[in-house]
Write a structure and sequence with these properties.
The longest helix has 14 residues. The chain has a single domain, classed as Alpha-Beta Complex (Protein-Tyrosine Phosphatase, Chain A). The protein has a 5-stranded mixed β-sheet with strand order 3-2-4-1-5, sandwiched between helices. The chain is of the alpha/beta class. It is built from 6 helices and 5 strands. Helices cover 36% and strands 15% of the residues.
Length: 174
């Protein structure tokens, strides 16, 4: 079944070995950016250098509209025949925001709350980066629905690092 995998940096190599994803999205600060791991083609590895802040004024490497545009362009090239692995440092904030964005793009308008609820069910620790989500909402023309959906599920349970989470490419109902 086609799926998006979300993991912390510490689980990337194990996930590549076990799931054999065709595409990899890395969302890390520039100082921590990784090279393309063995098992992933360089052309199928998107590196988005950003910090995990919710206010663009706090850091010059905050999530931006360009990050969202690059992510969408990359994810639209993915045929979903093999999984896509999305990771950040802890698998909690940036990677969950990116996954939420990809899923909202795939499933179209008015799917936002269903996707957010599915994220909460599968990942109680998920706390999608609000700034990234705000830019995604603007780029996808969702009129605030992505922001409202993330706010509706609330903050995730406190965790230092999230476990691997699988998101099948199906629109889940409760």
């Amino acid at each position: 079944m086609p799926k998006i995998l979300v993991a912390p940096l510490s689980a990337v190599h194990e996930c590549i070995r076990f799931y054999e994803p065709s595409h990899l999205v890395t969302l890390l600060g520039e100082a921590y950016m990784i090279g393309t791991p063995e098992g992933i083609a360089e052309s199928r590895h998107l590196r988005l250098a950003m910090t995990d802040v919710a206010d663009a004024a706090l850091d010059e490497f905050a999530p931006s509209q360009k990050h969202v545009l690059d992510l969408l362009a990359f994810s639209r090239q993915w045929d979903a025949k093999a999984p896509m692995l999305v990771h950040c440092w802890a698998g909690i904030s940036r990677s969950m925001a990116a996954t939420f964005t990809i899923l909202c793009d795939r499933f179209g308008p008015d799917s936002e709350i269903q996707i957010a609820k599915a994220i909460r069910r599968r990942a109680p620790h998920a706390d999608p980066n609000r700034l990234f989500v705000r830019f995604a909402d603007e780029v996808l023309g969702r009129s605030g629905r992505m922001i409202e959906a993330v706010e509706a599920i609330g903050r995730g349970k406190l965790a230092v690092e999230g476990p691997l989470v699988e998101f099948p490419l199906v629109l889940e109902t409760e």
